[in-house]
Amino acid sequence: TVDDDTGRLNVTILDDNVKKNASELLLDQLAIIDVEFSKRGDAFGKSVYPPDIPDRVLSLSKRRVYALLLSDLHMGSKTFLTDAFYRLILWLSGKTEHEDMVHRVKYVVIAGDVVDGVGVYPGQEWDLEESDIYRQFIRLSQLLEQIPKHVKIFIIPGNHDPTRQALPQPAIPRKYAEPLYRLENVTLLGNPASLRLHGVNTLVYHGRSIDDVVGTTPGLTVFRPALAMKILLKARHLAPIYGGRTPIAPEPEDHLVIEDVPDIFHSGHMHVLDSERYKGTLMVNSGAWQAQTGYQANMGIEPTPGITPIVDLSTLDVMVRDFTKPFT
Q: What percent of the chain has pLDDT over 90?
């Protein structure tokens, strides 16, 4: 069923190739359908076109510098990977190995859920090591302040962080995250956020709507979140499905439209590391720093925590470091 300003129309699709394209359309998204009418007035879809992103020349860094992509730290959770995160800090400080790689890291981008929060779901208090939201941010800042100051850190909120839950989300308020605001190399932004990292256009989005995309698109699973991110790129919208699990604020202007095509699309939320390329755009879902929770076990979700994607901004090649294992 499709509608526009002139009314509503039921369209039947018979061609298998068109069916496949139509199956990737999301509820409530914009689409163009080429329709042919029978003599009885029935509408048959001959082709389906999402807004999609164009083929284009990527904006790449002229220097070989790296961006380290993180998400879903969940500081305060009993399953936060403290040892693995300390290895990450030691590595970034050049105190372990791969010194030639480390000195090229200029950015750390964290795509939401930096703390586990308080009262996010029923019974969460049993999963928390730190039940004070202010202390969660103090402990997080104590870790992040150990990252070398020449590395710029960007943080957006997720659904566990103490800010408005409806998209788009404003930055985490200073009253909760004051220790982070005091760090000279940390910048807190809203969700979603657009960055230019050494000239590379980067879209950072926590990824709450991936739940809705996976739940309504045939063939998608929680184990390949980058494929769901591709569907969002093709829809040119970060949360086109209305009335699902993703709360959307009634803003006068839709700030979730993907107007500028990113070179990097970075997301989180799913706790599973995954990456793909689509028409040049690098899509990265950066996993988590929280081991499997009881809730995830009940849902059949197997996270890939502590494994970090590092992007070469001059080529968009992805390197992966596993910080769950001791240094050799």
A: 91
- 259 contact partners, CB below 8 Å, separation of at least 6: 236
Q: For 20-58, what is each residue's pLDDT tens digit?
A: 999 999 999 999 999 999 999 999 999 999 999 999 999
DSSP 246: S
**CA torsion angle 239 244 245 247 (round to 10):** 60
d(Cα 325, Cα 328) in Å, to the nearest integer?
9
DSSP type of residue 169: B
Q: What is the dihedral of CA 20, 264, 155, 318, to 10 degrees?
A: 100
- The reply to whether the predicted model has a pTM over 0.90 is yes
Residues 6+ apart with CB under 8 A from 119: none
| Distances in whole angstroms, Cα of residue 257 to Cα of each of 97, 236, 239, 260 | 41, 6, 8, 9
Structure tokens at 67: 């961006």
- Residue range 224-249, pLDDT digits in tens: 999 999 999 999 999 999 999 999 99
Strands (E), the chain: 2-4, 7-9, 11-12, 32-37, 43-49, 66-70, 105-111, 152-156, 186-188, 193-197, 200-205, 264-267, 273-278, 281-286, 307-312, 318-322
Angle at 259 between CA 258 and CA 260, to 5 degrees: 100
Structure confidence by residue, pLDDT tens digits, 135-191:
999 999 999 999 999 999 999 999 999 999 999 999 999 999 999 999 999 999 999
Amino acid at 62: K
3-state secondary structure at position 58: coil
Task: Report the run of H or E that residue 99 belongs to, with start and end.
Answer: helix 99-102
Residues 6 or more apart whose Cβ sits within 8 Å of residue 49: 31, 32, 33, 34
